[in-house]
Amino acid sequence: MPELPEVEHARRTLEQWLGGAHIDTVHVHDARILDDGVTPARVVRALEGRRVMALERRGKWLRIVLDSGSVFSHLGMTGKWVRCEVGDETLRFEKVRLDVTARARKRRSVRYLDPRMFGRFVVLKESDADLPVWSELGPDPLVDGIDVAALHAKLAKRKLAIKPTLLDQKVLAGVGNIVATEALFVARIDPRRPACELSRAEVGKLARGILRGIEETLAMQEGETIQYVEEPGAPNPFIIYGHEGEPCPRCKRPLAKMVLAGRGTVLCAHCQR
DNA sequence: AACGGAACCTGAAAGC
DNA sequence: TGCTTTCAGGTTCCGT
Questions:
Q1: Nucleotides in chain B near protein beta carbons (<7 Å)
Q2: Would you say the pTM of this structure is higher than 0.85?
Q3: pLDDT-above-90 percentage for chain A
Q4: Which of A1, A119, A203, A220 could be joined to A77 by an S-S link, Cβ 3.0–4.6 Å?
Q5: A119 Cβ partners below 8 Å, 6+ apart?
Q6: Distance from residue A54 (CA) to nucleotide B10 (C1'), in Å?
């Protein structure tokens, strides 16, 4: 569910909860969150007794750097990390629990919840140097910025429509369906256009739209718990995402919705060309 | 190699 | 009210 902004918010809160902490007890409630063949016992062995040195993010992946090795967390569509008191009852959808002693000897129970279970909790095998999907990620817009010339060159090789191309994490890490939808509207580019047809100027507009979308959503994240914007009751904060059928903010014609490479896509067929 | 589509899961909302 | 259908912001695999 989360895209880059929500994952960055998760990284910041996890850094507060876990930075420098000693991991006392680990419990895996559902092994389906792990890679095939990895047992909960192996995860416990890899984590218990370790200290958390840093929390990193690349795209939608989180990396918990330990004094020996690392673990990776991907929130999938519905994952979130929450903090409880040690001894609190198991939460609904709880998949992994880390009971830790944080700075100032404060004990905390940090838990990973994931109803839909598209998320992953990855402990590397001793033989693996790194997580391949992590090292294959493209530039992270927030960490690396967007090099328009490099992006233009990369897109020039792709005949696929621009929107599904943007969702390829090797192109830009962390861009998801919402950011892609919004950025294409801001840049006034039709999501169906082949990526290779975009001019350098259009790629520049797209890059600005992506950064703007990420920064605006990140600015909305407050408090400790990850918020998935547009949760029940909350107004939809996006420009066109989720606004299909409503008037285009620019030309007032109704916004269309279609499926592109399997993903719902909102657009203004008049403004985006 | 590149692409579309299905699969992986489950909950919430919409439809009837 | 309650049952059924649809949809979901991600990734991966499979067949063409």
A1: 2-13
A2: yes
A3: 88
A4: A1
A5: A33, A73, A74, A75, A76, A77, A78, A79, A95, A112
A6: 32
Q: What is the distance in angstroms measured between the alpha-carbon CA of A190 and the sugar C1' of C16?
A: 27
Tell me which H or E stretch contains A259: strand A256-260
CATH 3.20.20.80 assigned to A141-267:
no
Query: Each residue of A108-136: pLDDT tens digit?
Result: 999 999 999 999 999 986 667 789 899 99
- Specify which residue's alpha carbon is closest to the C1' of nucleotide C10: A76
Matching residue, tokens 């109704």? A254
Cβ-contact A65, A55 below 8 angstroms: yes
Q: What is the distance, to the nearest Å, from the Cα of residue A100 to the centroid of all Cα atoms in its chain? A: 25
pLDDT in tens, A163-206: 999 999 999 999 999 999 999 999 999 999 999 999 999 999 99
Contact of A237 with A220, CB cutoff 8 Å: yes
Fold of A4-135: N-terminal domain of MutM-like DNA repair proteins (3.20.190)
Catalytic residues of A: 2-3, 60, 263
Token digits for A50?
A: 């370790």
Question: Which nucleotide does the CA of A119 lie closest to, via C1'?
Answer: C10
**Across A227-238, average pLDDT:** 68
Residue with token string 């507060």: A16
Q: In the structure, how far is the CA atom of residue A15 from the C1' atom of nucleotide C16, in angstroms?
A: 46
Residue ranges of chain A that CATH labels 3.20.190.10: 4-135
What's the pLDDT at A1?
A: 55
> Residue closest to B9, CA→C1'?
A116
